[in-house]
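Section 5.1 Outputs to date
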Amino acid sequence: MSTPTPNKSALERILHAISFEGLAVLLTAPVLSLLMDRSLAHMGALTLAFSTVAMLWNMAFNSLFDRVEGHYGFRRTLSVRVVHALLFEAGLVLMLVPLAAWWLSISLLEALLLDIGLLLFFLPYTLAFNWCYDLLRPRWACRTAQP
């Protein structure tokens, strides 16, 4: 089972990424501030750093994945998408856990647990955000296509 990817302009992809990450920062920074007993500014800066790393990793990883896909010619089946997601998350963990440990002066294990908590948030958040985006996209596209 393979699903086609809708054609999106570079501008739309940038706006999608910024809105996804921006809303995530607005939702997670206050919660993390309360849970970690840190200032909102401190946690806001960390979530913004996480967001920046995640966006850059997303671009780099997907570019590399697209090249590998082009070279080997596989299709994006469910199993390929699962492998894609697992590899993406593994790379993100390798970057974010040390950053969180350093930023918050906590152990790598505590930072890993924090990252697991964020992952548990991001799984349903990603589903909900992209589902809503896909529902709203045709309305937005219709408005921009009208003279």
